[in-house]
Amino acid sequence: MYIDYALILTLLTLATGVLWALDRFFFRRRRGKNQSATGAGKPVEVVGSFFPILLVVLIFRSFLFEPFKIPSASMVPSLLIGDFIVVNKFAYGLRLPVLNTEFLSTGEPERGDVVVFRYPVDGRTNFIKRVIGLPGDTITYRNKMLFINGEPMLQEQDGVWIGEGINRNRPGERPLRRIEQLGEVSHPILVNPQTVQRGQQSWTVPEGHYFVMGDNRDASSDSRAWGFVPEDHLVGKATRIWMHWDCSRGCVVFDRIGDKIE
């Protein structure tokens, strides 16, 4: 079931703000500065007292940073199931909560950024992938290698991936870990030799859109399947891991806390 937390938080902030204003400019004047609220003024004062807290949370979550949890293996090995990450909300422009209308431009995604965005198919679900193609780029995927505007993105073999806990390999699977040079960004990817790519795929990224892929190349639903990400669907840039939760490994796994997302 989809829950719009931004809408709920915005409505709660507005409602408590109205009650705070009523208490501040009406009930408080009636009872005097040194008298406690009674009657109808008491619940208004109590509920309205939450307004400053909710306002701070709304501003922080909407314009500064927001936490997200990684639910799938599409970004393994860069991000694991159970990672809790921090997303920089002002990296690509400040937007009004709920309306998602940009009112201040602060930057644009760069190739290699790990971004959170609203899934273009339903416009609501948050996805996380890596930016591969910028507006105007021609992207080709052939033999599990990327070519951007005709230039190959070189890969270096880096052994076999062996996952742990909830990220352990499926029975019989031994995906290969490679280091991909994506422009100036060097990052790990996984490819599964048992999954065969059929033919060459090519796309040209339209203006105002981005082409994204998961680092787990054979286990990611991304722009190869459902198309481009519109600029106004961007939520922010993933920056750091603040916790990893895996109860098959003792619940809180400390060795990933604070890791930078690259």
From TrEMBL:
Catalytic activity: Cleavage of hydrophobic, N-terminal signal or leader sequences from secreted and periplasmic proteins
CDD domains in UniProt: S26_SPase_I (cd06530)
EC number(s) per entry: 3.4.21.89
Keyword Calcium appears in the UniProt entry: no
Alphabetized UniProt keyword annotations: Hydrolase, Membrane, Protease, Transmembrane, Transmembrane helix
Source species: Wenzhouxiangella marina
Protein name, UniProt field: Signal peptidase I
Subcellular compartments: Membrane
Keyword Membrane assigned: yes
InterPro entries per record: LexA/Signal_pep-like_sf, Pept_S26A_signal_pept_1, Pept_S26A_signal_pept_1_CS, Pept_S26A_signal_pept_1_Lys-AS, Peptidase_S26
Family membership: Belongs to the peptidase S26 family.
Domain of life: Bacteria
A cellular component term, taken from the record's GO annotations: membrane
Transmembrane segments: 6-26, 46-64
Pfam family, any one: Peptidase_S26
Membrane topology: Multi-pass membrane protein
